[in-house]
Every structure is written in structure tokens, then in C-alpha cells.
Amino acid sequence: MDPARNIDRKELFRDVKKIVVKIGTSSLTKEDGSFNRDLTEEIAAQVAHLKEQGKTFIIVSSGAIGIGCEVLGMKERPREIPLRQAAAAVGQNILMQEWMTAFNKYDLKVAQILLTYEAFSNRMTYLNLRNSISALLEAGVIPIINENDPICVHEIEATFGDNDRLSAMVASKVDADLLILLSDINGLYDKNPRKNEDARLIGTIEKITQEIESYGGSPTSTKGTGGMRTKIEAGKITSMAGCHMVIANSAIDNVILEIARGKNIGTIFLARNGKFKNRTRWIILSKVSGKLTVDKGAERAIMMKRGLLPSGIIEVSGTFGRGDIIEIESDYMVFAKGLTDYTSEELIKIKGKHSDQIEKILGYKNYDEVVRKTNIGLV
Ligand code: ADP
Questions:
Q1: Which of 23, 220, 246 to mutate to test the pocket of ligand 1 (most atoms within 8 A of CB)?
Q2: Each residue of 338-349: pLDDT tens digit?
Q3: Domain housing 366
Q4: What atom of ligand 1 comes closest to residue 162's alpha carbon?
């Protein structure tokens, strides 16, 4: 049945902690075009349950355009971009209200984040995004993300994206362990199952070959969304980032719970092993943009897997930005590499100072640590 190989998903998902769930337009819209409230309620119940087991969730929710069309009395989804954007603007806050009501039942708070692709192409904005999402998760809040349709400038994104690639980019940037794409179909078939009775469901995908890509076909014209093509694109992004991805049918009872406990449903795109899987390895293999010379105390702390505080920095060399990789040296020996949360300019101002003083000197503070322990690799 499974052409790739039989994966023990129970074992694979045992340590899965951070999960991104993307719900497609097709699942959030009922046959008669109305909003599928049952689904938001079911998802909230499952997320609340898994949160109690220590998992954290980020939801990427489509559906704003559909709701907007309903409110504006549009019989069909308009093809014109400005009209779609107008419908999205009307629908977005109603969509958020739906999620808020669903999660409120479980005493869970939600936060709205609207994104465009540009947010990912600028290192500063994506670092800020990553930091704000992790702050929300730490506070127990569920971020609900959608594409900022009303200001989307690329037609192709406004028409074809449908959040598949966006959710994969979010999953990769926040170091998620698993992305679940909920759709109106059981997973990826070797051809469009709506048109071919003999289409076969693919259980496991280890590598996205040209053949796999050909299964995506062209986008579904009726709903104007990405169909499987953008989901395969999403799989490429997550697998490189060391994150697994599952496409499954939102109509399956307790679909998120079942996936999280390792049941073989839908299609899994496995995370690629090796270089990109391990963050530390990626840091060690990266080109450096500068150097921090630290004292013996800081060296000892780093060797004991702690982060680097500004008080331990003696000298800052090179010009670098937030999110750049720098080497860390003590006694003329480079012993570690790390991803810095502060720029070289900022570090020159706060080197040798106590973390308590960061805010006073810079006017703000990202973290007490200049390089956090999860962002350090020993060389
Ligand atoms: P969503 O709104 O959930 O993102 P889409 O409508 O964009 O979903 O994509 C799912 C649809 O893609 C399916 O309902 C099906 O009609 C179509 N499709 C095209 N090719 C395939 C394939 N090879 N396997 C599965 N579904 C396919």
C-alpha cells in the first residue's frame, strides 16, 4: 500500500512539540458556501486537549474571503483582485471572532497575525515575527495567522497561495516539528482523485521527486486555490527545515489528535535528515559575519551549554546584523559559533555590561542573552 516505506509515526511524532495547523478554504466553507463553525469548534477542542499534554500550536486559517463574500452578498468568489481583497478585509475580523469564540470555551486566548511574503524576505521582520510568536506561545496564547490579503501586492500570491506556502514558511521560521495541512481530501494522490477513479493515495513521501511534483497538476479552478501544487511546494519548505508535514482530511473525527498520536492518516512528507535538520549543525556550517571575544567566565558558561551574556564580551569585531552567525573566541581560540540577537553596533554599546542595563542603554531589550543557548554550536 505504501510505496515509500512504512514509517512508525508513533515513534516519529513522540517528541513533537510545536505544531502548525493550516486549515484550507475548502474545509472552512460548507457546501452551501456558509462558514463551517463546527470545524473551528472541533479544532479548538483538540488543540486544547493537546495543549494540556505540553504541545504548542499555531493556527494558519484561511476563510476570510469566503466569509466576506457572504457578508457582502456576493454569490461567487470574485475573480478581480480588489474585490477579493475587499471581501478578505470584511471577512478577517469575523473569522477571528469565530476562532476567539471557539477557543474561549477552553479558556484559551488567541492573537491575530497577518502576514505577507515580504515579512520573510527581510531578516529583521522575520526575526521580530519569530520572537513575537515565541512570546505568544510562552504566554499560552494561540497565534492565528492569515495572509494579509488586502495589501498583498503580487497577484499570484493573492490568487494561488491559499496559505499553504505561508504556513510552511511559518513552520520553518518558528522551528516547528510538524505542519498539518487540513483539506477536503484524504491526502496527495498520484493523480487528481476528483477526475480519476483509479487515483492512489500516497502514504509517505521521503523525497519530492519530479514525479511527485507532477501529481500536483494545475490549480483547482473552481475555488481558485492552489490545490495540491502549493501543498507540495509547502512540503519542500518544511522538509528542508527539518519539519514533518501531513496533509489530511479535515472531515476525519479528531483528525489532529489522531495525527499527533501517530496514526497513519493522510500523506506525510518527511523532514529531510542531515544538514538542515539540526539547527546547531546549520549554525556550525554557516559563514560567519563577525566575531565576539569573550572572557573565561563566558567561555565556561557556553561550554556548560548556557547562553552568552553581554557582561562576558570583551571585544566585538566585524559589522553584523541581528540573526547573523558570529564566531565566539576566548584566548585567541574560536570555540563556538552562534546566532546573535543583537547587531554589532548594539553589542559595542552593551559589551561588559550587566543584562539589566541593556534596556537603559539601547532603549529596548530582546533577550538577556546576546546569543541564546539554543543558538550556539561548539566547534
Ligand atoms: P484547501 O482549500 O484545503 O487548501 P484545495 O482546494 O486548494 O484545498 O486543494 C485540494 C484539492 O486539490 C482537492 O480537493 C482536489 O480537488 C485537488 N487535487 C488536484 N490534484 C490532486 C491530487 N493529486 N491529490 C489530491 N487532490 C488533488
A1: 220
A2: 999 999 999 999
A3: 288-378
A4: 4
